[in-house]
User: Fold these one by one.
Assistant:
Number 1:
Amino acid sequence: MEVEKNVKLHVTDVGDGKVVVLIPGWPFSDAMYDYQYQELVDKGYRVIGITMRGFGQSGKPYGKYNYDVFADDIKVVLDKLDIKDATLGGHSMGGGIVLNYVIRHNAAHVSKLAFFGGATPLFTQRPDYSFGPKKENIDGMISQLKADRTVLYEGLDKIFGASATSISPGIRKWFYDMSMEASPYAVTQCLIALRDTDLRSGLSKVTIPVLFLHGTKDNVVPFAIAENAQKSIKNSRLVRFENSGHELFVEERVKFNTELLKFIEE
């Protein structure tokens, strides 16, 4: 679907019924939600997955990659599809993107918001914010991306799960392959956005119901980030995934789908 001249996004649109919109995390495509598409469609929902520009099968322009660009792209897609009262969810960086969408576009088309291991409202440490990695850690990742991105992706693979066995070898390869589909330029620019974007001032603008699903063993986005954010958003709740790291949507797939469905149906 075209979101601006010469920029098309890959959009998965399956099923009928009440709408759920899913935004992938860095550096994945919407294919990461394959095991959610099947379950949600079987339960009678319409599911729309949007792969952000620069990733998967979406267009890969050289230009700006930041949370505002992504929020505006989502708005174009939901405008064109004439979506109403959707549940909007995002994983990892996608959590920051969907939060920014709700803030920037006043929750247009959306009646509920969900974060899955969400890097929100801020991913890196500040003098007044002790959660997450230090900015220098992200700078190191950017340097590694520019030198050999395969090494970075292989390293991330080792910390994505709660343990060495919580994600099967086949799924790990699938994640790696999705990562390699992404534009190296987009992946780098998104790390800069992830490092620098601070959405704390916008949390008070979130008035729709919010769900946090987060692994307690998350080594990428620490569980404390979700705990802290949840306290700042009214009408929100946090569900702990005791046996999951960052990829809770496959590590505890049944619980993930059950909790998401429960939230959608409330």
Number 2:
Amino acid sequence: MILYTVPIAPDPTKVMLYIAERQIRGFNLGIKEIVVNTVKGKHKEAEHLTRNPFGTLPVLELEDETFIFESLSIIQYFEECFPEKALLPKKAKERAKALELERITDLRILNEMARYVHATKSPLGFPNNPEKASEAKTRIQPALDYLECSLMDERDFLMGDAVSLADFTLASGCQFLRFIKADLFGNRPKLRSWDERFRNSKSGRLVLKC
């Protein structure tokens, strides 16, 4: 299997953190990584568009030349096909809650972090848009409050004592912000402590660049 990816970008980072965590837990997925240079626009060229007509990353290429190009779909494929030492809980309720928190973190936090980055100092060269940046900063607040509250019980990570998909999602967004030296956590000490713990976790140290 081949993972087409790019460092620092949130969705590829989420998948790379997942792959690293599986390896740390003793299961090597055997993924070959190929970097697609988005700064040079390689994701918009025909070669990549044959893999993913939307031009986004990451993209997983299977041995039969099937392409999967949504980060959560890639992770769920790994979970289903390689259940040994999988990360998602096996029981339906716990699994649903883990996926729910990942979706909250992705749709309500990571998306807004990405919008903020691209509206302030886009690595892809999008024009600055202070109004969009302000809107993203406003929209992100309720979900950050939700996570800050959930960490009040002194858990180490977002779902408890072990890292989860939600941790990968949030960490990938935080790295994207750090890339432009931005910070949206505000006065939330629990989230700041979580960020420090995750960056110093084994998977965090393996994958995160900043």
Number 3:
Amino acid sequence: MREEKNRIRQILRDRKAALTPAERLEKSTRICRHVMERIGVGETVLAYTSKELEVNTTPLIDALLKNRNPVVVPIIQKEDISLRLSYIRNRAVLVPSTFGVPEPIGSEIPAQAGDITTILLPMLGFDRTGARIGYGAGYYDRFLEKNPGMRKLGIAFACQEIERLPVDANDIRMDLIITEDGVVYPARKELQ
């Protein structure tokens, strides 16, 4: 299964890389709008801080902060393959860190997983069953396994959809998957 997942990861990386910067920006803006429609007032959100080819979470984090939603970001701990959590009050505290991911190094405000209502997850790909494939290290799968109570909202570009992902016992399905086209999982009829 590992070889199959790695083959799929490469296909999905290529799809994302094929998007122009202008397309990524336009699609990210639409995704942000769809996500904000599903975040309640005062809801504490764990939001990943995006790298170049990912859905740009910058406008999303700005919108959450503007709406006075508490925003938590992950700090990658390579030593034990885990995530540490920190509140942020503005994006100015974020600096490129582990894997080039922006993190509030030196400006941490410790957060507890139990305070989080919704987690926004990065992904390389997804399918219509709510399965997600990440980059392969398992940081988010380990975090979600230890902290199952939060709503899991995966965000991705529509081109990252794949017909069927191979899943194993460690893979955790999303509660919602949102692309620039809106909610794609669960299907609209399931939401009613």
